[in-house]
Specification:
Strand content: over 45%
Shape: elongated
Number of strands: 50
Radius of gyration: 32 Å
Helix content: under 10%
Mean pLDDT: 92
CATH architecture of the largest domain: Sandwich
Length: 658
């Protein structure tokens, strides 16, 4: 019988070490004895941690930055060989500020007390709120004990937590049971009080997607949402890494989101924090369990985040966990990286595909999307909406990626299935820099909604199409205006409609054939250039048309007091001054019909709301000039849906299509 050989430590973490070895020839089992700081001198000099017939073992529950020595004996059940010995240090914890393991004295199913919520380092000790979470233990938890917040307003308060600079990493094991009954999201950890806020990390009710927000030094808020959601009733390791304005979310060690925000997290100051609840208010309570919460004042790397999930390896062995193919896109059915733990089933479907990873006692379901053929890259986009919207146009600015065509011609957008193409229109672009794009979304539910942007196809032409994207659209691409849309074939040159006054008494004007498509809840956008802005010698005007009233943009007006004014008119007029416009420059002017007033904008800003003399009935559009040499140029016209709180956008991590 031979001594074991080839001992190695393929993964070393802060509190765990993985051992691999080749069993001794002729043996039935391998016995492993561990000793801290020196090699065991015999089979009884240390702690027996393993005796079985395998060739790998995960040694958990260790102390960071500590040397552990191992002696491996081959045995046939009666005799033992000479040992194979070697030592290995666990990693040193870098920047770990606080850790809440919830392994206090309270027995299972009892209400947590202060002893259960203390910080391992005795720095940021927690205190249960007046409604205390319930202590659980055993197989219910990842390791030792955990807290069950049971959706009743319970939580843990940390009176005065401080982290340094503008960097923080927060990690936790979470197991979601369902929706929170006290808010739209479920708090994991936040640092806020009634007058100051720094961050909040949570799980959205919609889609169970991990998300968060940070505040900058001016108290501006910046949100971010993972495009990947969680399944109910299973544990996940969630890590938030914030460094300045860069936010990352990891799920089970896999990066789910890497986003640059418009602002950076404010520097750390002593400020109250809460686990499982938002600011001690018995609101946004998590409906589920939390275990092993950690806060670092450094930005952990991906490898460091991955090392932290080893504490849950026993849970994964029992339950299985999806591999890195889960949630990705493929041209054909995936065959590798299906499971990180567990036995993989056959892959079913024709795209999307599904499979399971079966552990010793349970299994998890995994999936992969079918990507668009010939597109090498895609990014998930999460659209968050506060209301249900149908056939709504959403505008987003797209940063150039080196995998794209420089002119953005290979952009394509799909629904959440990764296959159903969505209509879009590129409003403007700077090659190799940015593109402003409108996408028509057939249905947006309240909460988070996912679509995909595809690119990485060098041979295709653009499919940008305003007619398919908006209620009404014209970019004046021909030599005259289309009489299927407008009242006459006005001359067009270089995709610009120019209305030039040819008479001292008559209008030179054009009107839409449809006189009812501008309704409450719609916006008219017109990119226009006036040549006599704020003049009373010329008329240059854009207005709604039809019925007994109008909303108008009087860039120039022959009636004194009406020039340079927005105006509602029925029997009389109510005015508001145009702001943000300079004569003979291009600008986007907007008219929005609200329920009881009109919203006017220049370059989608400089808001002016006029409620007096408001005509709310459906109307068409009129564009015209009055007097000789009056001139108004039009680049494009569109009519779109309006939302008082526009949907917000967050970008996921780029995915390669395999």
């Amino acid at each position: 019988m031979a001594t074991p050989t080839n001992l190695s430590f393929p993964t070393v973490a802060y509190s765990s070490i993985i051992l691999n070895w080749t069993p001794g020839t002729g043996s039935t089992n391998t016995l492993i004895v561990r000793k801290q700081g020196s090699i065991p001198t015999s089979r009884t000099d240390g702690t027996t941690i393993y005796e079985d017939n395998g060739n790998a073992f995960i040694d958990t529950g260790l102390t960071d930055n500590t040397e552990y020595c191992y002696a491996l004996y081959a045995t046939d059940g009666t005799e033992y060989t000479e040992p194979l010995t070697e030592c290995q240090d666990t990693l040193e914890v870098q920047g770990l500020l606080s850790r809440w393991e919830f392994d206090g004295s309270t027995i299972s199913d009892g209400a947590a007390v202060a002893n259960d919520t203390r910080d391992t380092f005795n720095i940021n000790n927690g205190t249960p709120l007046s409604i205390a979470p319930i202590v659980r233990d055993g197989s219910t938890c990842i390791k030792g004990k955990c807290l069950d917040f049971i959706n009743n307003g319970s939580g843990v308060a940390i009176p005065n937590m401080s982290t340094s600079a503008d960097i923080i990493t927060a990690t936790a094991w979470v197991n979601i049971k369902g929706d929170s009954i006290s808010g739209t999201y479920q708090s994991i950890l936040n640092q806020s009080n009634d007058s100051e806020h720094r961050f909040s990390f949570f799980i959205l009710n919609a889609g169970k997607a991990p998300g968060g927000w940070i505040r900058d030094s001016a108290n501006n808020s910046y949100s971010f949402i993972s495009p990947v959601g969680l399944a109910l009733n299973r544990w996940y390791h969630i890590a938030y890494v914030i460094s300045g304005n860069n936010a990352k979310i990891y799920i089970d060690g896999n990066k789910a989101l890497d986003i640059i925000l418009a602002g950076a997290i404010k520097a750390g100051v002593p400020l109250r924090a809460t686990i499982g609840n938002f600011v001690d208010r018995t609101s946004y309570t998590i409906n589920g369990l939390i275990d092993d919460v950690r806060v670092y004042d450094t930005a952990l790397s991906e490898d460091e985040v991955k090392s932290l999930i080893l504490i849950g390896s026993d849970y994964y062995t029992n339950n299985g966990v999806c591999g890195s193919a889960n949630g990705q896109a493929f041209y054909s059915a995936p065959s590798t990286n299906l499971c990180s733990y567990g036995v993989v089933s056959s892959v079913s479907g024709t795209g999307p595909w599904t499979w399971t990873c079966s552990g010793a006692t349970n299994s998890v379901s995994c999936f992969a999307d079918k990507g668009l053929l010939s597109y090498s890259r895609r990014k998930p986009i999460t659209i968050n909406s506060v209301e249900s919207l149908t056939n709504h146009q959403v505008k987003m600015t797209i940063a150039y990626d080196s995998d794209m065509q420089t002119d953005f011609d290979d952009l394509r957008f799909t629904a959440s299935d990764g296959q159903t193409l969505l209509n879009y229109w590129i409003e403007s672009k700077t090659n190799s820099s940015t593109a402003d794009v409108w996408i028509k979304i057939p249905s947006l539910a309240i909460g988070s909604n996912k679509i995909y942007m595809y690119y990485g196809n060098p041979s295709v032409s653009t499919t940008s199409n305003g007619d398919n994207t908006f209620i009404f659209f014209d970019h004046f691409d021909g030599s005259v205006a289309s009489t299927s849309k407008w009242s006459w074939a006005a001359p067009v040159s270089n995709s610009t409609l120019s209305l030039l006054g040819t008479s001292s008494t008559a209008w030179t004007a054009i009107a839409t054939n449809n006189s009812t498509f501008i309704t409450i809840g719609t916006t008219v956008d017109i990119r226009a250039k006036a040549y006599h802005y704020n003049s009373t010698s010329y008329g240059e005007q854009i207005r709604t048309n039809g019925g007994s009233g109008e909303q108008s943009i009087g860039l120039a007006y022959v009636l004194s007091g009406h020039q340079g004014q927005y105006r509602n008119t029925i029997s009389s007029a109510s005015f508001g001054a145009i702001s943000g416009y300079t004569n003979q420059t291009w600008a986007v002017f907007s008219i929005t019909k609200l329920a009881s007033s009109a919203l006017y904008q220049c370059n989608r800003a400089n808001d002016v709301i006029i409620s007096g003399n408001y005509y709310s009935n459906p109307q068409g559009l009129f564009i015209g000039t009055e007097r000789l040499n009056a001139r108004l140029d039009i680049d494009w016209v569109l009519i779109r849906k309006y939302s008082s709180t526009p949907p917000t956008i967050s970008w996921g991590t780029e995915q390669s299509i395999n």
